[in-house]
Amino acid sequence: MENYWKYFSGDNENWGIKLITCGYEQINRNAEYPVKAHPDSHLFSWEEGRTLPDYYIIYIPTGGGIFESETGQTEVKPGDAIIINKEEWHRYKPHKNLGWEEYWLGFKGEYIESYVLKDLFPNNITHIKAMGYQTDIIALFNHVLRLVGTPTKLMEKVLFGSLIQLISHFTIEDRVKINTNRHEYIVQSSIDYIRQNITNQIDYKKMSERFNLSYSQFRLTFKKATGTSLNQFLIAERIGLARRLLHNTDMEIGEVANRVGINSVFYFSKLYKQKTGKSPSHDRRNQMTV
Predict the structure, then answer these.
(1) Nearest-5° Cα angle at 128, 104 to 130
(2) Residues with Cβ < 8 Å from 277, sequence gap 6 or more?
(3) Which domains does the chain have, with CATH numbers?
(4) 151: three-class secondary structure by DSSP
(5) pLDDT tens digits, residue range 49-64?
């Protein structure tokens, strides 16, 4: 199984929240989308779109694509969340040349209707929320996925708290600010571009030309702001993606390396241990305790 998801048909409602589905996918460049293994109730085509009877959050840490609802069409960037209102037509897909990584939740319930809905949908419509790349959101999604993979009575109680915590992140104001400083704009735009193209080959010299900077000026600007070089930042981002793939899928290590844009399994394993302190196989075996 290259991706992980779970759909619930029974009565799992606790304290006013019913979890409909949750999951994780990493859609490679030029891959078919959506993945056909989903239930018919959640499959859709770009041509027709779909409506759903419940509320959904789709969070995109890396890659990029396009989203359209009844109010218009919007680009989806790294760190964006698609917040879907029930019974509202919509469609979305990653760009073929980028692919994307997605986490999602589908949910409903009295607690949501009473306490969360007005903050989750301030204008009562499906929309894109610019959350930015947030490791705490990713950690919470991973935690929820681990919980639903171990169904026990204790899990149900812990899951309720985790769902409230996760959904609450998406009820606050957008985290992405407009940078008025040119250097801040250059660095943030570069980070966004790297996360959009995380599995592609990136030409840093062409990136520098986008900002009318020499290559050396561009490298210095980025390193001064982030404390790391462009290439080391890309490596760290790829290892972060690889870790999520190891924890949330059962891909072979060689496939994980290929998915994150590293062709050599030996080199990938070496980088992975340097960045995480663990080998890829050891990290996968111990993921439940991470």
Answers:
(1) 90
(2) none
(3) 4-169 (2.60.120.280), 182-289 (1.10.10.60)
(4) coil
(5) 999 999 999 999 999 9
